C-alpha cells in the first residue's frame, strides 16, 4: 500500500504543476487567433509527441528559373515551437542559383552550410560583411539586416537555417519595391532608380500588387 | 510565360511569409479581450492603411479650470500600435495652467516642447530633477516616476508626448489619494497629511470613489 | 459647481486611462485559454480586491511517508498574479523529511527559512552549492537548476517560497525518469543506472505513466 | 582506465558548458558598475555557495516613532540574485504602526502575512483594492501602484515580502513631495494641497532635499 | 528632535533604495563601452537634471539637394534615455523633397505631422500601406519595415518622430546596395536590377564603400 | 561636385546611425566580462566579416566509449552571435551510441536529423514525448526539459542543432548527481536510488567533484 500513498503524495507535491504550466511550454492552438507573443496554448491533454516533431525538412525542388528552393519548419507547421523563439529551414541552391536580397524584420538567421559553396553576406550603410562559405561554416545575419545568398561553387549547395523566432517573416526586396501598387514615380524618387528601370521591374513583379489604403 | 513562373517561385520563397506573421506586426483586434502582451491580432486580410494612421492629435480645448488639455493616440484608438511598445499624445497648457502630479506605472514618457515654456520634472526620494524647457527641448520621465508639468511662461505652451507602451496608464495622485473610498484616517496616517486637509480634498475629489473589496 | 467641472476635467485627463490598461495590471480570466505570456485580462469592472489576495498559505499536513508538505499560491489560485512574474509557496518538512530532487524549468526559486534547519542546494556539472540554513537565511535556486531540500535539524522546519513566475512548473526527477512509459533500457543507457535499479524505481513510480506518441 | 576516458568524454560533451554560461546564472560582480540588466558576472571560479545565501532576514528594531521595521535581501547584499528577477524582504509593524504610502516603480511586491493583522491595499484612479489580512494571506501590489500597509490588529504583525526584481527601488510619497527642493508653490499647485500644509510637511521632511539641476 | 529621528527612520526604510537602483533608471555612462541592453549606469551622485533633458530638436537646414533635414535626440546625445526604450527626432522636408527608402532594424517609428503634407508608407511583400498625412495625423512604421516619406504638399512639412529604442539605427536602402564594396554583378543578380543601373548608382554612392572581410 | 554633396547629406541623414548602434547588432568583446544580457560590444571599427562566421561545424570524433561527438558554435567561439538569442551545434552518434539525459536550463533546443535514425524525447512529470526520427525530421526540446538522444538505427546518425540562446549551458544528469561532493546519503534520500547504486556511480563520475561552500 505504500506505493499508492507515495504517488498520492508526489502528486500532491505536484499539485502546483498545473495543467496550464505557462512557463514550461505552450503548444500552439493554431485554430485560435495569433497574438503578440504567439498563439494561445492547446489544452495539455490534447498535446502529443507529434506536436514537437516536424517531418519534411528535405531537399526542395530547384527546377525553377532560380535554381533554388526553400523549405520551412515554422510554428504554423509545427505547433510545439510556439513562443519558444526558434524555428528551422532548409535551403537548396543549384549551380548558378541564388536567393535574392531580403530581410527578416523579426528574426536573426543562422545558416549552416552542409554541401557546396555559398557566398553570403549582409550590409550596413557603411560596410559589407560577406564570405564564401565551405561546408561546416556557419554565418549569422543579425535581425533586420538586408542579406543575400549566392551559389558560388560548381555544384549544388545545401544549408540548414535556424531563426530566432517561431514565426519569422521574410521580405524579398523586389516584392517590397515592385510587387505592389506603389507608384513608379515615388519608387524612383525614394530609391534613385531610373523610372524606366522601375517600370521594367514593376512589369515583372507588379501583377501581385494589392492596394491597401 | 516566364513572369508567371517567377512570381510563383517568389511566392513559394515566401511560403513562409505566413499570414500570421507574429514578428512583423500584429494589428489589434479591439473586439477581443486584451492580454498581458496586448490584443490578439486582427486577420491580416482585414488590415488596412487606416490601422496604422491616427487622425486628431490637434490642439485640445483648454477652457477649463486648469487651462490644460491632453489628447492621446493609444492602441485603443490606433490598432496598428498593438505590441509595438510606443504611443503618442499632445499637451496644451494655457498661461497659468498645469498638469497635476501623476505617474505612468507602465511607461516612460518623452515630452517634446514645441511652443511656450513648461517647467517639468520628476522626483526620487532624495532628488528633484527639473528644468524650465524652451521650444526644441526634450525631457524624459523614466517609467513609474512621479512627475509634473507647469506652464511657466507668459503664453500658451504646446508639447508632443511619446510613451514606451502602446497603452500607458496615467495615475493622478489626487485621484489615487482622494478619489476613492480609502478612509480619511488611513490616508492621514500613511501620508502625514492633516486629517482636515484630507477631508477637504476628499470632498473635492471623493465623489467618484468606487469601493472594491 | 466647480467640483463637477474639475472632476470632469480630471476624468478627461484620464481619458487615456482606458479600462484595458495593458501595462498596469491584467488580472487573469481563468476561464479563457492560457497563452505564452499568461491569461487574457478579466474585464476591469469585474476585478475586485479578492483577485489580489490569496488565503491559505498555512501549514500543510506532513503526516505522510515523506514528512513534508508544499502549499502554493500561483496564478491559477490567485488571478491578480497574472503576468506579474511572481508567485509564492510554503514548505513544511517534519524531522527527517525532505523534498526530492527537482527543477523549475521556468522560474527561479527563493526560499526564506523561518523555523528549524534545512540543508538545501543546487548542482552544476562541476560544482555543488549547498548550505545548512538557519531561520532568517534566504537561498536562491537559479532558474532550471536541479535542487533539493532536507530537514537537517531536530525539529520541524518551515520556509516561505517565492518564484519568479506567476505559474512555475515543478519537475520531480523521479517522476521524470520513472513515472512514465520510457523503456527501462533507454533509461539505463542514458543515465548509467543499473537496469535492476531502474526497474525497481519504475515499479515504485511507474503506475502513473501516460504514453504520448 | 575506462573511468578516465569516460570523464574526458563527458567533459568534452560539456566543452560547451563554458565558464561564462550567460543563461544559467550570472552572480553579480558588485565592484563593477551596474547596467540596465544588472551587474556584470563574477568569474565563475570565484563563485561560492555564500553568493546564493543571505543571512539576516530577521525581526527588525521597531522602537522608533513608526513602530515599524523593514529588512531587505536585495542583489547588493546577495549577489546570486543578479538578473534573476526576484528578491526578498521582511516587514515588522508594532501595534498602531504603519508603512507610509509608497511605490516600487520597477517591481511587483508580494506580501505574505505570518503573524498579526495588516490592512493593506493599493489604489488606481477609480478604485481602492484593500483587505484586512490574516496569517496565511498573501496580497500582491502590481508594479508601480501606490500602496500602504497598516497594523490593524492588537499585536505586532510580521510579513515576508518578495519582489519581481533583484533590486527594487522604493519611493515614499512624503519624501518625493516634501523631502527635496521642489518649491512649495509648485507642490501646492500640482497636488491641490494647501500651501500651509505643504510648508508644514516640508519643514518635517525637507531637511534632506538635494537640488539637482 | 523628533524630526531627526523620523528622517533617520525614513532613511532606514529607504535603506533598500540603493544608489544603484537597477529598475528605476540607469543613466548612460557614455564613456564606457555599450552593451546588448545599453550602456552601464553612471554613478547616481553624478546624475543631474541635464541628463534627462536634450536641447536642440529644432528646424534643420534643408538647403541641400534633397530639401530635407533630420535631427535626432538619441541616447548618445541624451544619456537619460539609456535602456528606457524610447527616443525622438524631428523631420523637416522642403517642397518637393523626400526621405529615401530606409528601415530601422531595431525600432518602430512613430511620425506626428505638425505642418504641411507628407505622404508616407511602408510595404510588405503583398501590400502597400500608405496615406497622405495632414497636421495632427500620426503614422506608425512597425519595426524593420521598409518605409519612405515624401513631401506631397505645396509647402514645407514638419514632423516629430518617436522611436521604440534609445538608439535606433537607420539603414538607407541606397547606401546598403550601392554604398559599399558589394560587386555590381552580385547586386544585379540578387536584386534583378540591370547591371548598368547598378553601376550608375554605385558611381553615385559607391565612394564610401569600406570592405570588411 | 553633386556627388559629394549628396553623400554628405546622406551621411548627415545617417548621423543618427551611430557607431554604437545598440539595436542593430553588438558583436561580443570576449575580453571583457560577461553580463546578464551578454558581452559588451566590440568597437564597430574592429568588427569584421569573420566575427559573423564560424568554421568547423564538421563531423566530430566518435571513437570513444559512447560512440558520440558534439561540436558547438556558441558566442564564445563566434562573437557575432552576442545577444542575438541563437547558436548552433552538430551531433554525431555512431551505431549503438547515445547522448545521456541532460537539460539546457537557459535554452530551447531544435534538432534537425540529416542522416541515420535517432530516437529522442523529453519528459514531464506525467508524460513522455518521444519519437524515432528519420532524416528531414526536426524535434524541439523546450527550455529546461530533461531530454535524451539515442541512435536507434543501424548506421551512424548526424544531426544539426540550434539553440535559443547565444550561450546555452548543458547539464548532464550524471554529472549533476554523481560528479561533485554531494554526500551519497543525501543523493539517495532525495532521488530514492539505493545507496549502493549511488556509490557505484559516484565512483565512476565522482573524481571531478569540486566542493563549493
Care to give the gist of this entry?
The structure is a homohexamer of 213-residue chains. Chain A is of the alpha+beta class and 213 residues long.
Query: How many domains make up the coordinates of chain A?
Result: 3
Placed side by side, the strands forming the largest sheet of chain A appear as: 2-3-10-5-8
Content-based structural category of chain A: alpha+beta
Mean pLDDT of chain A: 88
Instruction: Please tell me the CATH architecture of the largest domain in chain A by its name.
Output: Sandwich
Shape of chain A: globular
Give Rg of chain A in angstroms.
23 Å
Q: What would you give as the CATH superfamily of the largest domain in chain A? A: Jelly Rolls
Q: What is the fold-level CATH name, i.e. the topology of the largest domain in chain A?
A: Jelly Rolls
Number of helices of chain A: 4
Order of helices and strands of chain A: HEEEEEEEEEEEHHHE
CATH class categorisation of the largest domain in chain A: Mainly Beta
The share of residues in helices of chain A is: 10-25%
The biggest chain-chain interface is: A-E, 57 and 57 residues
Number of strands of chain A: 12
Distance between the termini of chain A: 71 Å
Amino acid at each position: 500500500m505504500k506505493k499508492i500513498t507515495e504517488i498520492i503524495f508526489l502528486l500532491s507535491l505536484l499539485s502546483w504543476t498545473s495543467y496550464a504550466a505557462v512557463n514550461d511550454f505552450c503548444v500552439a492552438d493554431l485554430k485560435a487567433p495569433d497574438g503578440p507573443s504567439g498563439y494561445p496554448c492547446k489544452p495539455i491533454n490534447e498535446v502529443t509527441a507529434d506536436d514537437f516533431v516536424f517531418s519534411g525538412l528535405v531537399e526542395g525542388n530547384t527546377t525553377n528559373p532560380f535554381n533554388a528552393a526553400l523549405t520551412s519548419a515554422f510554428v504554423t507547421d509545427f505547433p510545439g515551437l510556439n513562443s519558444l523563439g526558434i524555428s528551422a529551414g532548409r535551403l537548396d541552391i543549384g549551380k548558378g542559383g541564388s536567393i535574392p536580397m531580403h530581410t527578416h524584420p523579426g528574426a536573426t538567421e543562422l545558416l549552416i552550410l552542409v554541401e557546396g559553396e555559398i557566398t553570403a553576406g549582409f550590409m550596413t550603410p557603411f560596410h559589407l560583411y560577406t564570405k564564401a562559405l565551405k561546408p561546416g561554416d556557419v554565418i549569422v545575419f543579425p535581425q533586420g539586416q538586408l542579406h543575400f545568398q549566392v551559389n558560388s561553387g560548381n555544384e549544388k549547395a545545401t544549408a540548414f537555417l535556424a531563426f530566432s523566432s517561431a514565426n519569422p517573416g521574410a521580405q524579398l526586396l523586389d516584392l517590397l519595391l515592385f510587387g505592389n501598387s506603389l507608384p513608379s514615380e515615388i519608387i524612383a524618387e525614394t530609391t534613385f532608380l531610373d523610372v524606366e528601370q522601375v517600370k521594367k521591374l514593376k512589369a515583372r513583379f507588379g501583377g501581385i500588387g494589392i492596394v491597401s489604403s
